[in-house]
Write a structure and sequence with these properties.
This protein is an alpha/beta fold. It is 44% helix and 20% strand. The strands form 3 sheets. Strands 4, 5, 6, 9 and 10 form a 5-stranded antiparallel sheet that branches. It has a 3-stranded parallel sheet with strand order 1-8-7. Strands 2-3 form a two-stranded parallel ribbon. Helix 8 (155-166) crosses helix 11 (209-224) and helix 9 (171-181) packs across helix 11 (209-224).
Amino acid sequence: MKISFLQGKKKLMTLALTVGFAVALAGCGQEGTVDGDASIGAQVNYQITGIDPGAGLMRATDRVLEEYELDGWRVQTGSGPAMTAALTRAYNNEEPIIVTGWTPHWKFSKFDLKYLDDPKGIYGDEEFVHTIVRLGLKDDHPAAYEVLDRFAWTPDDMASIMVMVEDGMQPTEAAASWIADNAETVATWTEGVEAVDGDRLTLAYVAWDSEIASNNVIAQVLETVGYDVTLRQVEPGPMWAGVADGSADAMVAAWLPTTHADYYSEFEGRFEDLGVNMVGTRIGLVVPAYMDIDSIEDLNSK
């Protein structure tokens, strides 16, 4: 499995951003435990800690500020690792923080967290993760198409890999461990598929912990049937554009109907949707359970 030069460059950029973001947060004056006498807004400096600016989750959060009339609030853009670094620091010091979150994610295994209720439904209901492939893949690589079409697993499966990675295991090692422990599930994806001899495939993905897990798993499974797989780490827009223009063969990271709705509409007709590979996912605003707030609409009043 090959990791592109772009992925290595992106890792360095992400590391620099994570460190810089954590340093910036250290000077925000949020030291100490939650001040119950201050409003939630005052406790968090009227800031929501977000992820990549191009993510659908961030666009939905911008809508939250408008629809809930959160005047004076801002969404801090960054990255997934920067968000979790900020959350870890705040949680360990029992400080208030509001982050953009999604399930499955290892943070729910490590910390006692809760989603804020969303009465206006900005974040939608349950999310589904779809497998999207380029047009013509079925004819060019029928074995890969078959494996990708069968690929389906659970949030618990994905979360177990994310926890292993967070505990220090390399993503490739965590994926291999999961595959070894779930041979029966993997067999449902590969049984009867005719092996190939080194055919090349490119999978595009976004550098979210969840998608690092899923892509390392499906890449290794495709390699067991003879494919030479390259993982290409990109932003959400280029991920969709790559499948639409054929420079990437597939992605297993399309969060719908909310997170990637704009990209689905923009490129519709230029890809094939193989359907849902995971149910039971969710996006929204997340806070530590020790914070005295349960709904987004309370951000103006508490």
